[in-house]
Amino acid sequence: MDERRLVRVSKYLAKHLRHQPERIGIELDEHGWVAVDELLSAAGSHGFPISRAELVRVVEDNDKQRYVIDADRIRASQGHSVAVDLDLPVAHPPAWLFHGTVARNLAGIRAEGLRPMNRHHVHLSVDRETAKRVGARRGRPVVLTVDAAGMHAAGHEFRVSANGVWLVDRVRPEFIRYPD
């Protein structure tokens, strides 16, 4: 499978495993899982056939490990806008986490902090480089530093997805450090 096909399949999975499963007639269970055979059948029936080998390659080769296959089920690791409970345990975060954004969002972040927007959680990275790549998807990246230890001490709950993305309901402005 060439790189363009890999990206197309990954984006298709993101759309239907995170945001619009009903569009192709699949139903995610309460934890976001769907049977692999059901997904492949639905994709084919809706004009986007995916082979099992392509699916496995996208899951295994995705640089951000966005998807997880468990037995004969698949789900997105995080980033859902549809109602799912990923059933991730509360975890003790590292002292500092990072969030990538762009300059045009900074005024709102300074006023309201980081909010999940149309998703269930704010996504945080363990390193600046990952956060920089995330921010770069929308333009010139700005990396914010989040005082995760301070948030944890104040009672905020953190969870970590299978691919190492830290999830929190929101980040209040006082826990955010801005670059100079």
Automatic annotation (TrEMBL):
BP terms from Gene Ontology: tRNA splicing, via endonucleolytic cleavage and ligation
InterPro entries, alphabetized: Ptrans_KptA/Tpt1, RNA_2'-PTrans_C, RNA_2'-PTrans_KptA, RNA_2'-PTrans_N
Pfam family, one: PTS_2-RNA
Enzyme Commission number: 2.7.1.-
Transmembrane segments: none
UniProt KW Oxidoreductase keyword: no
Keywords: NAD, Transferase
Entry GO MF terms: NAD+ poly-ADP-ribosyltransferase activity; tRNA 2'-phosphotransferase activity
NCBIfam families the UniProt entry points to: PRK00819.1-4
HAMAP family associated with the record: KptA
Biological role: Removes the 2'-phosphate from RNA via an intermediate in which the phosphate is ADP-ribosylated by NAD followed by a presumed transesterification to release the RNA and generate ADP-ribose 1''-2''-cyclic phosphate (APPR>P). May function as an ADP-ribosylase.
Assigned protein family: Belongs to the KptA/TPT1 family.
Full protein name: Probable RNA 2'-phosphotransferase
Gene it is expressed from: kptA
